């Protein structure tokens, strides 16, 4: 153990570190693997994205994860087994990517693994005053470290909760360090399963930075496609949504949840915005007989409405804001067109304009969290509730 700790220290003081960041989201289409070089820490952090790929999951693996994903009652034995299986699968995909990119495992200093969220339970969801916020990501860091031979940081969200947060979103920490710019108010909008954004003031005041979930991004659309369109996992190019018509009765019912009126920052997940949520909304609004295409069109408008409403709440304090998109939802042409039409005062760009591949952004952000934990220090965000000033990630040694 002493030798491993010494090795950890030696890597922490290297001028340049190579870190692989991992992200596996709620769509479960594959594992995002981003290799970046890091120098410095905190406001002096310099990052260069070197390699990126999304490694596909097998259908069997995807179905195994889905069997225990976002359900209040699951097979506990499968949760136990999949904690290891997710890690072993991720380790295999990492090893393959390293070879494909022409590196050796010993070239990589650290792995930053988000894991696979299977349940997210802030108090706003579980409504039990006597119990804390909770979240669970599987994919054990020890298994990744042992099977790659690389020091691994994982389980980032637990420290956030321990320090008073809700475990999400964590983008505020990386967005502030990577993307803040003097003189430009920025909104970093990531549309994954859940949409979230970080507000970055142009005066670089960390105490005014915040990040919040805003509602569904892709999650309800993905869930509906997977349930009703055999062999499909998402609505590619919005082909289904654009062939339907929005139903205003259903749309308005979908928007009635108290989550949308709650103060920032806040967090949510597919545990709330599920197929059951949709079925209940259809029942109340009397829209059970809608065509599948009309439901999909309405769900896309639902995602857009939630995002727009949340951004408009921040616009009063922004001066000619620039919105930078990332995440899978940015590739949905209908969703993108709805956002642009509703926010004419906002300039739309993507993180590619800031030299970070939009699809790689979340994986890169977790690599940055690992870099801060290993060689940085806490960033003070004004001592506000929900934005604790902490370093995150548990360290797993390979030997």
TrEMBL record:
SUPFAM superfamilies with a match to the protein in the record: Actin-like ATPase domain (SSF53067)
EC number(s) given by UniProt: 2.7.1.170
This protein's record includes keyword Magnesium: no
Record-level Gene Ontology MF annotations: kinase activity
Transmembrane segments: none
Domain of life: Bacteria
Alphabetically ordered keywords of this record: ATP-binding, Carbohydrate metabolism, Kinase, Nucleotide-binding, Transferase
Catalytic activity: 1,6-anhydro-N-acetyl-beta-muramate + ATP + H2O = N-acetyl-D-muramate 6-phosphate + ADP + H(+)
A Pfam family hit: AnmK
Binding sites annotated in the UniProt record for ATP: 25-32
Keyword ATP-binding on entry: yes
CDD domains: ASKHA_NBD_ANMK
InterPro entries per UniProt: Anhydro_N_Ac-Mur_kinase (IPR005338), ATPase_NBD (IPR043129)
EC class name: transferase
NCBIfam families to which the protein is assigned, alphabetical: PRK09585.3-4
HAMAP family xref list: AnhMurNAc_kinase
Protein function: Catalyzes the specific phosphorylation of 1,6-anhydro-N-acetylmuramic acid (anhMurNAc) with the simultaneous cleavage of the 1,6-anhydro ring, generating MurNAc-6-P. Is required for the utilization of anhMurNAc either imported from the medium or derived from its own cell wall murein, and thus plays a role in cell wall recycling.
Similarity field: Belongs to the anhydro-N-acetylmuramic acid kinase family.
Protein name: Anhydro-N-acetylmuramic acid kinase
